[in-house]
């Protein structure tokens, strides 16, 4: 693939107190707090990885997911939660069997033409429950290139057997959980080779 706590800033202002009209009136000082920038480079804390249909993914961490029913979902409203949603969502789309793909669509993917097209295409193929990926990719790191309260883009770095290190962008929006925005047919980005993890945050099962 190519390359829950809100981060809205808190602004606290003391009320202006007018005690009279004379020149001796005093106004209470205005107190403000500075906006805290989101942490875009730290990896999800306390991540626990395990195989899902042969692909090892982070199934538990301080930022989610908090449920595996019907599929892994429930992520913190943080950059780290978005990273976890991107990884697990991409894998769920790739390995969803005939009993799960509809739940993947409705639970993990943002409504839109891209999701509809993915569901239509998935309905045309059959994947038996219990199928396991052979020679799967392994996730190696991430880079967040865009982040706001309602939208983010995560570049996922993965090592593919026979191909090497690659990067793929995943866009997500916040709708009471991080959901993947599926690109429409013809607009999907390409899987791109990556020379190194420079500029990326390492995040893999090997670090667990």
From TrEMBL:
This is DUF8175 domain-containing protein. It comes from Corynebacterium callunae DSM 20147. It holds the Pfam family DUF8175. The lineage of its organism: Bacteria, Bacillati, Actinomycetota, Actinomycetes, Mycobacteriales. It comes from the Bacteria. Residues 28-202 form the DUF8175 domain. Keywords: Plasmid, Signal. Residues 1-23 form the signal peptide. InterPro entries: DUF8175.
């Amino acid at each position: 693939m190519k390359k829950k706590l809100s981060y809205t800033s808190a602004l606290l202002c003391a009320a202006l107190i007018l005690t009279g009209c004379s020149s001796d009136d005093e106004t209470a000082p205005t107190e403000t707090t500075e906006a805290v920038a989101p942490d875009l480079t730290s990896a999800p804390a306390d991540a626990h990885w395990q195989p899902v249909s042969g692909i090892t993914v982070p199934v538990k961490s301080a930022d989610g997911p908090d449920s595996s029913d019907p599929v892994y979902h429930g992520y913190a409203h943080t950059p780290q939660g978005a990273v976890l949603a991107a990884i697990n969502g991409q894998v769920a789309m790739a390995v969803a069997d005939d009993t799960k793909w509809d739940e993947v669509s409705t639970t993990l993917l943002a409504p839109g033409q891209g999701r509809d097209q993915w569901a239509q295409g998935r309905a045309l193929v059959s994947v038996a429950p219990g199928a396991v990926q052979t020679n799967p990719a392994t996730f190696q790191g991430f880079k967040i290139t865009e982040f706001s309260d309602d939208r983010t883009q995560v570049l996922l770095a993965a090592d593919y057997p026979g191909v090497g290190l690659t990067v793929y962008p995943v866009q997500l929006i916040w709708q009471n959980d991080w959901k993947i925005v599926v690109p429409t047919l013809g607009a999907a980005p390409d899987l791109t080779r990556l020379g190194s993890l420079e500029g990326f945050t390492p995040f893999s099962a090997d670090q667990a």
